[in-house]
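Final report, Chapter 2: Outcomes

The project's central promise was a pipeline that accepts a single protein chain and returns its three-dimensional structure in a standardized token representation, suitable for archiving and comparison. That pipeline is now operational. To close this chapter, we reproduce one record exactly as it appears in the project archive, with the input sequence first and the structure output second.
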Amino acid sequence: MSKAIDEIKEPVVSHMEAFEEKFKGAMKSSVPLLDKITNYIVKRKGKQIRPMFVFLSAQNVGEINESTYRAAALIELLHTATLVHDDVVDDSNERRGFFSVNALWKNKIAVLIGDFLLSKGLLLSLDNDDFHLLKIVSNAVREMSEGELLQIEKARRLDISEDVYFDIITKKTATLIAACCACGVASITRDEKTIALAKEFGTLTGIAFQIKDDLFDFGTDDIGKPTGIDIKEKKMTLPLIYALDKSSWLEKRKIINIIKNHNEESEQVTRVINFVVEKGGIEYATKVMHEYKDKALAVLKQLPDNSANKSLERLLIYAIERKK
């Protein structure tokens, strides 16, 4: 794990370590097969960015308590459930460089594991009367599903405007980070204004984070070689939308034809990447990403000034300066 993440985590590091144990407990089951699979999932978690947002947001406004741990566990349980289901839908055999659950245990078991994790999250909230937290996270899961479906629908026709793009990424990516920040604060206080500020910070951060992901596809000096994965998957990202918007009808037709019918040919994918670069799509998306970062920082300034607040600021900067 990067040194930057360790430093960002510093104000809540003891809580994050305690959370790991509590989270393992939250996934326990009396069925041996379930236990084996949930163990496999826990061992292969990533940088723990989501729980970090929960704990830092909570500590920013007060003292972390048991409700904060449950908020972080609820987010992780429901999010992991959606990832397991996503891998089944995408027929994906890998998740973060490891075999996905469906690759090792087949689709039926993977779907049931997702259902199990979902029910664990619901019961964790209901057993502790955390209805306010459950409402925040359930809304996020609903929006994430809507965002995915909207993206699938639009990928068929490749007719995405910037407005629709922002609608998709707000629902697909930003909603979850917004839920992390809102849940963290809601585990400490019921003050609607403070919860709304945390949610707004999370939304703006999530949008900036997703634009950074879009930029990875095209490769820049600091990112290295372009991947073209989004083009192969017919995903309309901000640099591409901008480039098409600045094109003649004929140029647009040619590029859309490549994305629709020749997206597996590396020469043609490179042609699309060069087209986006030439039209200024990279500069434009980078500028917009920094605008969202600045908006997020302005929201953060309205929250208490302490070490957790500084870490949230650094987590936002990390999100848009990371190399992968």
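Archive annotation: DSSP finds 15 helices and two strands in the chain.
This record, like all others produced under the grant, will remain available to the consortium after the project formally closes.
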